[in-house]
Amino acid sequence: MPAKKRHTIAEDEDNPEWTDADFARARPFKEGFPELYASWAKQRGRPKVARPKVHIGLRLAADVVEAIRATGPGYNARVEKALRGAIHNRDIWDFDIKLDRYEVEEHAASDGPIKVMAPKQEQRAMRKILDAATVALLIASNIKRREDETGKEVQRVRMSEASFRKISDRRRIDDRFLDELNEVLTDHNLTLIRTSAAIGILRASAVLGWPRLNAARVAEELRDARAGTLNVAKLEGELGSDGAAIEDEDEEA
């Protein structure tokens, strides 16, 4: 059986080899068939969303990055959710507006639309959030002015949660801010304690004159606690109602 003859491009009548004139007349596909090209272009890539994600460069502490990654796959969405909550609670910034100037905004999210309270567009004048150093300075100045008014050195003062939030310029006070504030207050010879009833500010030097307390009185209970046999009910009975919360009288006289 004779071998089949292989045809070259020059011998193919349906698709002959292009000449220089053919190349000169050639045009891109999108110019020759614009409607077809447009229909193909719309189908390429991911479908467009109304509020696409934005890539930003952000430097974080190594331990923060490690902790985020340790939460497992999908941490990008979890970090975004945490940031959205911080924005909603006004932990990142604050707005110099009144509540009646708020409006509801709806934001698209992967798990459905989210409605948040946001300032109206014309009222988005941001003010700086007070840091711990500034709040500590305000507290120390407040105490100094009280001393000047009374002519007596102040060893301890208290303020209500409402007054503390006002002087801190915050809607809520978290433990991280309190830690930062206490660290700065030591520069002013002050320390802060928080109870269920009020915020207390003490002169750090005043503590040196207080009665001393050591562990000898509870040595037996300490041994029991280490052994897992501590009688908790007995200790609570000894305390009685001394640990009950005391309702605060809001402001100073």
Description:
The chain has 253 residues and is an alpha+beta fold. Among the domains are: 62-127, no CATH class; 132-209. It has helices at 20-25, 29-32, 34-42, 62-69, 75-88, 132-150, 161-168, 175-185, 219-227, 232-239; strands spanning 94-95, 102-107, 114-119, 126-127, 156-159, 190-194, 199-203.
For this entry, give a set of tags.
253 residues, disordered C terminus, two-stranded antiparallel ribbon, 3-stranded antiparallel β-sheet, 10 helices
**Main beta-sheet annotation:** 3 strands, antiparallel
Strand order of the largest sheet: 5-7-6
CA-atom Rg in angstroms: 35 Å
Main structural class: alpha+beta
Mean pLDDT score: 76
Task: Tell me, briefly, the overall form.
Answer: elongated
Q: How many angstroms separate the termini?
A: 119 Å
* Poorly predicted regions: 94-102, 121-126, 243-253
Q: How many strand elements?
A: 7
Helical residues, percent: 25-40%
Query: If helices are DSSP runs of H or I spanning 4 or more residues, what is the number of helices?
Result: 10
Compact overview of the structure:
The chain has helices spanning 20-25, 29-32, 34-42, 62-69, 75-88, 132-150, 161-168, 175-185, 219-227, 232-239; strands spanning 94-95, 102-107, 114-119, 126-127, 156-159, 190-194, 199-203. The chain is of the alpha+beta class and 253 residues long.
What layout of secondary structure does this protein have?
Blueprint: H1 20-25, H2 29-32, H3 34-42, H4 62-69, H5 75-88, E1 94-95, E2 102-107, E3 114-119, E4 126-127, H6 132-150, E5 156-159, H7 161-168, H8 175-185, E6 190-194, E7 199-203, H9 219-227, H10 232-239
Antiparallel strand pairs: 1-4, 2-3, 5-7, 6-7
